[in-house]
Sequence to fold (255 residues):
Amino acid sequence: MNIAIGNVSLRHVSVNFNQVMRSLVPAVTIAMGLLMKKDISTTRQLAVLPVVVGVAMATFGDMSYTALGLVYTVFCVLLAAAKVVASGEMLTGELKLHPVDLLGHMAPLAMVQCLVFSYFTGEVADICRRWSAEISPFTGNPMVLTVVVVSGIFSFTLNICSLMANKLTSPLTLCIASNVKQVLMITFGTMIFGDQITVLNGSGILIVLAGSARYSYVSILEKKKRPKRQKSIPGSTEMSRRGDVEEGNPLISKS
Fold:
């Protein structure tokens, strides 16, 4: 649904405005995590700030929008953050689903949502009108079906990789990676197509790259400290001793 709402919002706002707003997804993810009482350190929260600011600078440009487009874009940002948080909870929470299993549960619901939105936005009627002349693989252009199938394969692969990354890292890390992807797309577009970027855009790209490196460094440090904290929990030694006694293993063998 978040992709569909994002595409609809592009009818009412500029691409730059949409990208700047989507750079706020990590901040919204932090807020949702804190509401769910997740342990997100202050150091990690501060490490996200340069990435958010950098993406906003890198994508800054034509900022035209309408009131309806603003509502759509804000809704899209909330849905994107809710998606990674909810999927992360199902992958690492009590259910601990496999990414393929989770995708199998999500795909039918996503199909129903797409059909409903496409019907009310007029896309179904447009496809029916153009089917015989342009879209049908038998009478129209066969490349249309090829593009749809290849796009579906790529989308499936992308979703599996995204869910696996969410399971192995965290929803916040996945949002940071998504922001870095946006900046890399701008960089590659500049190198391949010769797109012009301003000093503000270039500075934003450098800030995002430095900020993402800083976030990765903070994440690695916290992962290294985590086992030490678990070992130093008060009463953990006493609990382990009690466990040995309950299992019938004497703490001190009698000779």
In short: The two ends are 69 Å apart (CA to CA). Residues 112 and 118 are 10 Å apart (CA to CA). The first helix runs from residue 2 to 9.
